[in-house]
């Protein structure tokens, strides 16, 4: 069974309870399989869809990148916003000071144990203990580097006379209860128009907090984020958009913690769950607990922050480079490396590196050092959403490269300090894990010579360029004096490589190499000693060497002198 043992291991790191579409504990999973409810619960989780980026998130990223490109060409932000494609995101803004609504609902058989004032302080105020999860507002202010300050109002408890057991466990039942609560506060004169932050005619996001116990992972009385389906319902002329649905406390009757709401608000911003929903499908282990959207502690990862426009990673160019990254808990630093064989297209496979330390929102994570992420951001067939996720696809959308090479995350869901890249550890096409693409395509990407401190991690990194697939050493040589040229050739995929020498007029002189190779550099590198296929040294002059193979189609010039 896949990889939910992370919860047990991580409990050793943190005293704040973990909630959830919150990950189940191993004990819960065992119980669900014994009572034969697991299949039903997994289907419910999949139907909610918190395992995927929200529809529109990819288009939002494309628009944000277009705006930045136009600004680099001299346009103002206002001009760029007009020239970029129309807004692709209809939901909670990821920057600024958006307002959200919090509804508190108590049942006749489950009275509330926290005052609305206490709940409000722990959501929008200074909070009370449990740093860095002391309040929703503070957590996201730190995570976004001050770009997002969530504001709002927590309305007083709506005390329904109904028994909770009388609420139909359907979308319609859930929404009928919400309508009752909203109708009550609307009658009290509350202004709901203030929660339409982007003026699109809908309340962007609200939270519903209810009393009583949960009924286990991926059940009606659990924590998840979804969308209001009744488009005909209006309050102050506004439709209702996405909302989170969660408990007052877990276990019931305890103190309210904003931790669950922090996680669910990540969904409202467009982020997916990174943990695995179903151990029978695809790889498991999520991202080992090293993210708020995996196991409900720690900060959001560099890719998520890139998606939310909270950071702009340094985009690598081909060749050998020197990098330095400040800690991501305090600085919007990250590096994105991608082979230019895909011409820099963002919706492809690439790697991201960030410096994570035990501070700020990350203070309870297990280590310090570089975290390197393998991202497969390719889109689906219609080009609207990501093709991969961390639950139901053949490989993950986001995978952590484990520096110790033990692959413990996919084996048992546990990340530890050994997964951080620190001094003496390297990442390359030949390490475990390696820097190749999922289909085995060679990228040449490497990180080495890691140094510095948690305040600034330094490293060397290399990104293969298409210009480096074929290089010629000693391209002017004298074969009669023992000279030869060396051809350094890199195949992007396993397959057949052919290397042939031609005269300047295109006449075939010599087949230097013709055979199957693995992805990566040909070893040993082929050489040409200036002889033709008959073994005779050719005449002095200009020659062309053409290399063809998987991902390689290049011609180089060389000069031979007798």
Write structural notes for this entry:
The chain is α/β, with parallel strands linked by helices and 562 residues long. The chain has 3 domains: 257 residues, no CATH class; 156 residues, no CATH class; 92 residues, Sandwich (Immunoglobulin-like), CATH 2.60.40. The protein is built from 12 helices and 23 strands. Strands 1, 2, 3, 4, 5 and 6 form a 6-stranded mixed beta sheet that branches. The chain has a 5-stranded mixed beta sheet with strand order 7-9-10-11-12, with no helix packed on it. Strands 16-23-22-18-19 form a 5-stranded mixed beta sheet, with no helix packed on it. A hairpin with a 2-residue loop joins strand 22 and strand 23. Helix 4 crosses helix 5. The longest helix is centred in the N-terminal third of the chain and has 17 residues. The radius of gyration is 28 Å and the shape is elongated. The chain starts with 5 loop residues before the first helix and ends with a strand. The N terminus is likely disordered.
């Amino acid at each position: 069974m896949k990889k939910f043992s992370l919860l047990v291991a991580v409990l050793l790191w943190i005293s704040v309870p973990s909630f959830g579409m919150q990950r189940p504990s191993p004990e819960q999973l065992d119980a669900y399989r014994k009572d034969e409810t697991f299949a039903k619960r997994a289907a419910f989780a999949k139907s909610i869809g918190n395992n995927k980026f929200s529809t529109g998130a990819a288009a939002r990223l494309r628009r944000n990148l277009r705006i930045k490109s136009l600004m680099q060409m001299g346009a103002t932000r206002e001009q760029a916003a007009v020239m970029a494609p129309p807004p692709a995101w209809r939901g909670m803004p990821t920057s600024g000071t958006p307002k959200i609504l919090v509804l508190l609902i108590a049942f006749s058989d489950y009275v509330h144990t926290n005052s609305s004032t206490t709940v409000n302080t722990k959501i929008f105020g200074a909070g009370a203990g449990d740093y860095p999860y002391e309040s929703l507002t503070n957590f996201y202010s730190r995570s976004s580097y001050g770009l997002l300050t969530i504001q709002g109002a927590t309305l007083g408890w709506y005390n329904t006379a109904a028994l909770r057991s009388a609420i139909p466990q359907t979308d319609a039942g859930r929404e009928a209860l919400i309508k009752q609560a909203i109708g009550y506060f609307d009658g009290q004169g509350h202004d709901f128009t203030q929660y339409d932050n982007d003026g699109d005619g809908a309340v962007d996001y609200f939270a519903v907090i209810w009393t009583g116990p949960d009924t286990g992972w991926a059940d009606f009385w659990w924590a998840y984020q979804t969308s209001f389906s009744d488009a005909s319902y209006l309050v102050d002329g506004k439709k209702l958009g996405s909302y989170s649905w969660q408990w007052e406390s877990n276990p019931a009757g305890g103190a309210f913690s904003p931790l669950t709401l922090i996680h669910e608000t990540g969904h409202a911003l467009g982020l997916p769950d990174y943990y695995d929903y179903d151990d029978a499908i695809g790889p498991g282990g999520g991202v080992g607990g090293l993210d708020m959207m995996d196991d409900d502690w720690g900060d959001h990862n560099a890719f998520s922050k890139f998606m939310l426009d909270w950071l702009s990673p340094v985009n690598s160019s081909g060749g050998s480079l020197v990098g330095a990254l400040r800690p991501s808990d305090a600085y919007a630093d990250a590096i994105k490396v991608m082979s230019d064989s895909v011409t820099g297209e963002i919706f492809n496979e690439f790697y991201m590196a960030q410096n994570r330390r035990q501070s700020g929102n990350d203070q309870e994570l297990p280590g310090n050092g570089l975290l390197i992420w393998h991202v497969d951001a390719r889109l689906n067939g219609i080009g609207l959403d990501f093709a991969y996720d961390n639950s139901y696809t053949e490989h993950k959308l986001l995978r952590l490269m484990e520096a110790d090479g033990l692959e413990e995350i996919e084996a048992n869901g546990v990340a530890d300090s050994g997964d951080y890249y620190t001094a003496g550890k390297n990442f390359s096409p030949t390490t475990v894990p390696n820097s190749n693409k999922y289909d085995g395509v060679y990228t040449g990407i490497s990180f080495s010579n890691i140094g510095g401190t948690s305040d600034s991690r330094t490293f060397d990194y290399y990104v293969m360029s298409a210009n480096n697939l074929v290089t010629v050493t000693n391209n002017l040589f004298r074969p009669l004096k023992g000279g030869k040229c060396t051809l350094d050739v890199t195949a992007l995929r396993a397959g057949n490589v052919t290397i042939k020498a031609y005269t300047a007029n295109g006449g075939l002189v010599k087949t230097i190499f013709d055979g199957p190779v693995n992805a990566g550099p040909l070893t040993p590198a082929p050489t040409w000693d200036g002889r033709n296929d008959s073994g005779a040294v050719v005449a002095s002059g200009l020659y062309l060497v053409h290399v063809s193979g998987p991902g390689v189609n290049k011609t180089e010039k060389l000069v031979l002198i007798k």
